[in-house]
Every structure is written in structure tokens, then in C-alpha cells.
Amino acid sequence: MDILQAIEIFAFVTGIAYIVLEILQKDAMWVVGILTGAACAYSFAVQRSWGMMGLNLYYIVISVIGLVQWRKDGAQVKEGAIHLRALPRKTAVWSAVGFVFGSLALTGLFRALGDGSSALDATATVLSIFATWWLTRSYIQQWMLWVVANALTTALCLANGQYWMAVLYVAYIVAAVYGYFHWKKKGVEI
What we know:
The chain is built from seven helices and two strands, in the order αααβααααβ. It is mostly helical. The chain has one domain (3-77, 89-189). A two-stranded parallel sheet has the order 1-2. α5 runs antiparallel to α6 and α6 (142-160) runs antiparallel to α7. It starts with a helix and ends with a strand. The relative contact order is 0.15.
């Protein structure tokens, strides 16, 4: 086993912990997300998947924002409840516009940087950026974005030969489906 495989296995283990904590809406998820993001950023950098590398660096930063927001929101609901916010129409529209333009712009940039899967990398990256932002705001619809983003990322990992990472993203897809129903059942709108 080389160092890259060891890092991918570490990302897999912390990633599984992350999704369990995400489904349960535990603040510790954000701390584990920093570790997973760092490991994934390294793995994707080695593969020259610049979007996924940058996305995982973004995850490190957004984890701090998410932790602060969730602590604030969690204080508004009883212990054990999932705090939810209604997705504003304006946010959905701006996210859709940002997704289209962001995906096109990043595809061109990644192609110029030699990314062999530039469109797939860009699309998964931009979709994941919006899904993470929606997660920090506790919009239940973020789970739907994750299903698509993680399916695209699974395909990217398989194309790059990152099999541990592909398994992790398949687990993320399963967790997103379960998470949606769990949040729907236990959610309290704030």
C-alpha cells in the first residue's frame, strides 16, 4: 500500500463518520469534514482533478461556517430534533443560474489546466458547492443535490482509478437518500 492509498482509506473512514454525523445533524460532522476534506484534496490533487481538489479545500473553510450556523440554529429546537429552513425561491433560482455559469466557466478552466474529465469535474464541483451551502442553511433539498453530485463524483473517481474514493461516494449517495427521509421525519422548521 502506498501513501496515496493510505490517504484514500483515511478519507473513506472519516467520510463514513461524516455522513453518519450529517444524517444525525451533529455539530461534530463539521470537524470530521475538515479532516476528510484535507485528505480528499490531496488525493484529487495527485489525480489532477482540480475541481474536486478545490472543492475539498472549500469544504475545509465552509466547515467552520457550517459549525457556527448549526450551533446557532440548534439552539432554536429541542434536543434531538433536526433544524430545517424553507428553501427560498430566490436562493433556488440564483443557485441554478450559478450552477450553469459556474459549470461552463470551470469546464473551460479545467480543460486549460489539463483535467482529463473537465466537464464532469466542473459539474460535480459546482453542484457540490451549492449543496454544501444549502447544507449549512439546513435546507432539506440539499440531499437531492448530493445524490446527483455524488453520482457524478463516483464516475470521476472510477475514471481516475480512485476506487476507495468511488466506494466513499457511493456510500454518500446511499446516505443522501436516507438523510432526506430522516430529516423529513425528524425535522422542525425554524
